[in-house]
Specification:
Rossmann fold, single chain, about 230 residues
Length: about 230
């Protein structure tokens, strides 16, 4: 199994998705087009695609001129029935690729927040083992409208479109289910100044928040990661 991972920003991590791929002996090909790596022209050499998050918005083609080619690549994987996963910015790019409208700003969430599954999620192979509500880590300002023919799978009180599926195995997740407690701690240290501007007092609350929500969020995230890997 070969999984193409597209990194869009410095200091991301596959987190629990990487762990789930490793559990089944998968091979990860990391591509960093924001640093000049060339994207593959199509999906023929890979069984699945993961598009990670980033601080830019999903319409930033001028600053990130590879975005249109990435949209084409997403569509090619889906057309060949190969699994696709987009997280945060990645979900916004998937939505754009299939006709959703990106909405920049006005949907800010940060930290562990509760998400609720839709009725459709109870019949979805990636989400049907999860509780109806659970905390999960969020870090975003933007959102999107649901693409035509997409199935909405999760929502929060702030952001109505938190997860969706297109076709058999193309999934977009606005929330960072890949981010377990060590990953959140690492982000909190690496982006301390940015987070302090966004969420004053976060550094002082981190341990309490982690103790309250981290275990349940980690369990939900790993369940999602393993179930998505099983679609490959």
């Amino acid at each position: 199994m070969r999984v193409l991972v597209v990194e869009n920003y410095e200091n991301p991590s596959l987190g629990q998705v990487g762990a789930a791929i490793s559990e089944v002996g998968g091979e990860i090909d990391l591509c960093k087009p924001y640093l000049g790596d060339a994207l593959p022209g199509d999906s023929r050499d890979h069984h699945a695609l993961v598009v990670l998050g980033g601080g830019q918005n999903a319409l930033a083609d001028q600053a990130y001129p590879y975005f249109p080619a990435l949209l084409d690549l997403i569509r090619d994987f889906e057309a060949r029935d190969r699994a696709v996963l987009g997280i945060c910015l990645g979900s916004q790019l998937i939505a754009r690729a299939f006709g959703g409208h990106n909405r920049i700003g006005g949907s800010t969430e940060f930290g562990w927040q509760e998400v609720s599954l839709t009725e459709e999620a109870s019949e979805d192979g990636v989400l049907n083992e999860l509780p109806e509500r659970f905390p999960i880590f969020q870090w975003h300002d933007d959102t999107f409208s649901m693409p035509p023919d997409a199935v909405r799978l999760a929502a929060s009180s702030v952001t109505g479109n938190q997860a969706f599926r297109i076709g058999r195995a193309t999934y977009g997740f606005q929330f960072h289910f890949e981010a377990d407690r060590p990953m959140v701690r690492q982000w909190s240290e690496s982006f301390a100044e940015l987070i302090a501007r966004k969420q004053p007092g976060w550094a002082g609350r981190l341990e309490e928040e982690m103790a309250q929500h981290g275990s349940q969020a980690d369990a939900a995230g790993l369940t999602i990661a393993r179930a998505w890997v099983a679609t490959i």
